[in-house]
Amino acid sequence: MKVLHIEAGRHLYGGAKQVLYIMQGLAARGVNNLLACPTDAHIAAEARAFAEVLEMPMGGDADPGMVLRLKQAIRTHQPDIVHIHSRRGADIWGGLAARLAGVPCVLSRRVDNPEARWAVSLKYRLFDHVITISEGIRQVLLAEGLAPEKVSCVRSAVDPAPYLHDYDKAAFRADLGFEADTPIVGMVAQLIQRKGHRYLLAALPAVLAEHPTLQVLIYGRGPLEAELRQAVADQGLADNVQLMGFADDLPAQLGCLDLLVHPADMEGLGVSLLQASAARVPIIASRAGGMPEAVIDGENGLLIDVGDVAGLAAAMNRLLGDTDERKRMGDAGWTMVMHAFSIDTMCEGNLAIYEKVLAQ
């Protein structure tokens, strides 16, 4: 079987990493992978270990020329099936290209934001099957009119190996200039509005009142960076909040956190939540999208309502004040990731859908 994967993202964020995991797993199962991605995309270098990489201009929704470029790639390389992994124009233009070339096409949907029923009716005709990375996203599509037999859930996975080691928390704190017993909360997400950084900043005064030495490390980059820096300064939080940027060595740092927070407005599943669980870090997240599938309330973390600043502060205070509960939740998260979110399970799920589509 030959599969053409289309990933339009330029950075190696969570979604692109999932594409790498899938291609690696498929290659191990004898599948021939092709990857179409933007010129100079970060995924290209790593993907070459288990895929032939086709770099090309990808200008997003405003680039209908993607249809012709992708159609030509399909006709040249003759894949058995096309798998579109992202939006940014890749969904519509990639779906049209596959249709014009007469090749079956599946779409991975990673976000839970709603779409109009008329848009769902038109857009999803392009795809032979839709794969959602969480049951929460699947339910959104069903509610918008997509036929149940056309959509399946195959959850995202995480490679736990980089997180399965002993973390020297005291050395990590010393490197940052903190005392050995400094409590540290982290947030790992793109710096965009829907991730909910504003809720974390709003909750901090109530948390600092009980934990005045708390340090908050915000990992990620994005268009809100300048706005977040200004908000930290304006709210008098500069002594307690650091923007860490994009950390290439995140696995070496994540397990040193006492707590991960993710108060997003919406989230398909949340790869950073799975990574935190692999590193035995308890989590506070919102009841939205697929997050309740990655965080079981009271087991590997706590869930709050979207936008509930007081609830976020209370949850942070509760876990920061209870070392035993944090350890129990961290251990439970590790167990859950190892069993329910494995790369093998994800790869087998995607491969089964390819085979189903091709059989039809």
What does this protein structure show overall?
There is one protein chain. It is built from 15 helices and 13 strands. With 360 residues, it is of the alpha/beta class. The chain has two domains: 2-157 and 342-359, Rossmann fold, CATH 3.40.50; 161-340, 3-Layer(aba) Sandwich (Rossmann fold). The chain has a seven-stranded parallel β-sheet with strand order 3-2-1-4-5-6-7, with helices on both faces. The protein has a six-stranded parallel β-sheet with strand order 10-9-8-11-12-13, with helices on both faces. β9 (215-219), α9 (225-234) and β10 form a beta-alpha-beta unit. The longest helix has 18 residues, at 323-340. The protein is elongated, with a radius of gyration of 21 Å. Residues 14-160 form the Glycosyltransferase subfamily 4-like N-terminal domain. One of its GO terms (molecular function) is glycosyltransferase activity. Residues 169-333 form the Glycosyl transferase family domain. Keywords: Transferase.
CATH architecture of the largest domain: 3-Layer(aba) Sandwich
Q: Runs with pLDDT <50, length 5+?
A: none
Total count of helical runs of at least 4 residues:
15
Number of domains: 2
Report, as a whole number of angstroms, the end-to-end distance. 15 Å
Tell how many strands the DSSP assignment holds.
Answer: 13
Cα radius of gyration in angstroms = 21 Å
CATH class of the largest domain: Alpha Beta
Shape: elongated
Instruction: Give, in spatial order, the strands making up the sheet with the most strands.
Output: 3-2-1-4-5-6-7
Mean pLDDT: 94
In CATH terms, what is the fold-level topology of the largest domain? Rossmann fold
Pfam families: Glyco_transf_4, Glycos_transf_1
Keywords: Transferase
GO molecular function: glycosyltransferase activity
Protein name: Glycosyltransferase family 4 protein
